[in-house]
Amino acid sequence: MEITDVIVHTLSLSNVEDVANGTQDAAIIEVTTDEGITGIGEADSSPAVVEAIVNAPRSHDKSTGLKEVVVGRDPFDVQVLWDEMFDKSYYYGRKGAAITAISGIDMALWDIMGKVTGKPIHKLIGGKKCNEVRAYASTLFPEDPMNTEYMRRQSEQILEDGFTAVKFGWGSFGQDVEHDHELLGAARDILGPNFDIMVDAGMTYGWDTKRAIKTTKSLDKAHNLFWMEEPVFADNVEGYAEISNATETRIVGGEEEYTAYGFRDFISRGNVDGVQPDVARSGGITHMNKIASLAAQSGIPFLPHGYSTDILVAASLHLIAANPNAPLLEYCIEDSPLRWDVVEEDLDVEDGYVSVPTDPGLGVTLDRDTIAKYRTKLLC
Question: What pTM was computed for the model?
Answer without folding.
Answer: 0.96
